[in-house]
Design a protein that fits this description.
The chain is α/β, with parallel strands linked by helices. The chain folds into 2 domains: 5-121 and 301-314, ATPase, nucleotide binding domain (Nucleotidyltransferase, domain 5); 130-296, Nucleotidyltransferase, domain 5 (2-Layer Sandwich), CATH 3.30.420. The protein contains 11 helices and 10 strands. Helix 4 crosses helix 11, helix 5 packs parallel to helix 7 (213-228) and helix 8 runs parallel beside helix 9 (276-289). The longest helix is centred in the C-terminal third of the chain and has 26 residues, at 235-260. The protein is globular, with a radius of gyration of 20 Å. Bound molecules: 5'-O-[(R)-(carboxyoxy)(hydroxy)phosphoryl]adenosine and zinc ion. Zinc ion binds at residues 114, 118, 139, 271, 303.
Length: 331
């Protein structure tokens, strides 16, 4: 039995998180201190406030992760930390903590790509999952279709040319007066609406790239026009129709890629993976086509350090003490 203990640290945006993982898949603790209530009154994440809150929270969160795991800090064999993409100041807090601990404990440091981390959340929810598979990564900052042939081989098939899916959810929600983050709010409201009530244009991008800015403008136009004409809108119908357009676009491209690249496992990842309609649509479509479908448990969909520890465990390459944040890190 593999007893390697990995401490994961994640501070790329508005969650301060630490987790302890035994071997590649046994999660011993997963602590997340969210700053969402703090940023809500600004309608989005304020970078400086995020950094300041991370610096206050990071050590208590790490302590709690160690205590909850029932281990001693000196038992930790390696430390995995998010190096990007994310907010520079926020990333630096986690990186500084990880570097200091790695130095003090004399253990290796692993620099993890946050997007790869989102995919690896699936290995924690489904310990039987193995590559190769096709992954749809949908977060607040990214929308990408990735072919993962091995633990360390990622092939980017396509990505958003403008807004990420989560960003579109958040922006539409904001204009509709819903609190930050908008994704879960639209998801909730959409359950009360008719997804076929309003026809919004489907993004027209060939291949496996995505674009959500045109759809976002169409929804904003719809809302503005109604306001100018003093017409009342059915907010639930708007939420449901917008969500359906996004979900259908994501699902259609994912299924087409699975078919072209002959991949029989589809793995959903990132904060938008928590969307109930996306999960249901992909699950049903996969069942119909005889494909296996995986998505992380809700707590592992959005930002967490368990996924960073898991990615770090399989990465097998190490960073040194000059590690820096890479805010715009790609795959
Ligand atoms: O992966 P994540 O936690 O952070 C980034 O790495 O960006 O994703 C956050 C995004 C936000 O845009 C949020 O609105 C969206 O995920 N999100 C959802 C849902 N839960 C979170 N979007 C749609 N439906 C949800 N249920
Ligand atoms: Zn994320």
């Amino acid at each position: 039995m593999n007893e390697t203990l990995t401490l994961g640290i994640e501070t790329s945006c508005d969650e301060t998180a630490a987790a302890v993982l035994r071997g590649g898949r046994e999660l011993l603790s997963n602590v997340i201190s969210t700053q969402i209530p703090l940023h809500r009154k600004f309608g989005g994440v304020v970078p400086e406030i995020a950094s300041r809150k991370h610096i206050v929270n990071i050590m208590p969160v790490i302590d709690e992760a160690i205590t909850k795991a029932g281990v001693d800090l000196r038992d930790i064999n390696q430390i995995a930390v998010t190096k990007g993409p994310g907010l520079a100041g926020a990333l630096l807090v986690g990186i500084s903590a990880a570097k200091s601990l790695a130095y003090a404990l004399k253990v290796p440091l692993i620099a993890v790509n946050h997007l790869e981390g989102h995919i690896f959340a699936n290995f924690l929810s489904a310990p039987e999952l193995e590559p190769p598979f096709l992954s749809l990564v949908v977060s607040g900052g990214h929308t990408a279709l990735i072919k993962m042939t091995d633990y360390n081989r990622f092939e980017l098939l396509g990505q958003s040319r403008d807004d990420a899916a989560g960003e579109a959810f958040d922006k539409i929600a904001r204009v509709m007066g819903l609190p930050y983050p908008g994704g879960p709010e639209i998801d909730k409201l959409a359950k009360l609406g008719d997804p076929d009530a309003i026809t919004f244009p489907h993004p027209k991008v060939t291949g496996y790239d995505f674009s959500f800015s045109g759809l976002k403008s169409a929804v904003l136009n719809y809302l503005n026009t109604a306001q100018m004409k003093d017409e009342t809108i059915n907010a639930a119908d708007v939420a449901a129709s917008f969500q359906k357009t996004v979900v259908d676009t994501l699902a259609d491209k994912t299924l087409a890629a699975a078919n072209e690249f002959k991949l029989d496992k589809i793995v959903l990842a990132g904060g938008v993976a928590a969307n109930s309609s996306l999960e249901k649509t992909l699950r049903t479509a996969c069942q119909r086509r005889g494909l296996e479908f995986f998505y992380p448990s809700k707590i592992l969909c959005t930002d967490n350090a368990a996924m960073i520890a898991c990615r770090g465990y399989y990465q097998k390459t190490f960073a040194d003490s000059t590690l820096n944040a890479v805010p715009n890190l790609g795959l």
